[in-house]
Amino acid sequence: MKSQLKSGVILSYITIAVQMVVQLIYTPLMINLLGQSEYGLYTLVASVVSYLSLLSFGATGAYLRFYMRFRENGDNQKIGQLNGMFMTVFLIMSAVALVSGCILAQYTPQIFGDKLTSGEHEKAKILMHILVFNIALTFPSSVFDSIVSAHEQFVFQRVLNLLSVIFNPLICLPLLFMGYGSVSVVLITLSISVLKLTINALYCVKKLKVKFNFKKFDFSLLREVAVFSVFLFLNMLIDQINWSVDKYILGRVSGTNEVAVYGVSATMNAVFLQFSTAISSVFAPRVNKIVSENKHSMLDELTSLFTRVGRIQLMVLGLAASGFVIFGRYFITEIYVTQEYENSYYAALFLILPSIIPLIQNVGIEIQRAVNKHKFRSLVYLAMAFINIIVSIPLGIRFGSVGTAFGTGLSLVVANGIIMNIYYSRVIGIDILSFWKSISGIMKGLVIPVLFGVIIMNYIVIDSVMEFCLWISAYIVIYAVSVIFLGANKEEKNMLLKIMKKRSNI
Q: Is 186 in contact with 40 (CB distance < 8 Å)?
């Protein structure tokens, strides 16, 4: 399993790297081929349809907890009942999402407002129908994903994700060049979802020999899962509000062009978020195992894992965040898109920088779920999400995409940076002071590369993409050396030396 864990993390970062390259090439071409207005429409419709995913009520997050409980007891019959129950419930949810989405697609003028043209409303209706079918497929697919994750088959899972990242643009781009527009993009997305669902199902049934018991429906277990999932659902609702509502607000008050500007910043933020979840997601089974064993040293083990993963995440996120602060404006306006999207840089800053604290503490979410103390976080985030909406509407009217992003960033700082750290310390039992003391040691390694980057962007004239890439490469090297020698601890340096020795022996 350790090899699966390490390979899973490595493959996650390979996927992120590939995704960054894809976004670098694909998104600007997509904006250019579709036009700012249609790209904004595509982004707006996708964000609205994504709300249908809330019909899962957060139940996928509960699967791992109950699976680990039954596995520890060696109760295969209960696991079969759990699998059958989840699949039944999610198929029902899929049908509800499909019907609800098709009904909503008939009322695009009421949903999107009068800032869209009649032609945009007609295209929005087509896009909604296709994306609704795609969302419906994600429900049964998420069950298979949860099963694969519970079996810690990270290599298969990450390879499948990597292939979907690669093939989506490879198929879409020729169609866009032929003039098929955003409709072709969502049709390809739907086709890939069908293929992923099929492969996941075959892998679970044929390779993992997973059993689904549909005969004995355990309603008491369903009630227990439902109670546990209520607050996971609130987390999903909050995430949808924080990461999607800004586009909807802008669509209502500004139109599709401003949504397109925000869409670029949201893409930057999405890539940044993946740097953290790539690591934390593979540690979910380990967290649940520590909790299920319930040893006297449980809190010490959780604090150690919380800190070790947080330090690794900060090393990676520090590179991404500092690099974007220094090079992001030039990248967006001169390479990625055009000067029209300058506000995308500032909006992205308000989304990315406040996210660093919760991202280096992502394992804490798995810990909360494992010890069944995730309710408070959900309530805090729910309150902050509604504050985000209240603040973002006037800011969106006055400052457009930058204003709505600021509202989102402000809510993240209050909820994650202050309230949740107090909760981790006083309720969960994590030694949060030890965590921040350990984290602060890494910050010394950021000083030299940041000064180097500031000098580059203020005193050197960059005349080409190649020259820009060379300076980026130099920054990465200096960052890596500085963080390793000034920020990394002895354990992390030894781990790096072992990796280097293994590579040299290949």
A: no
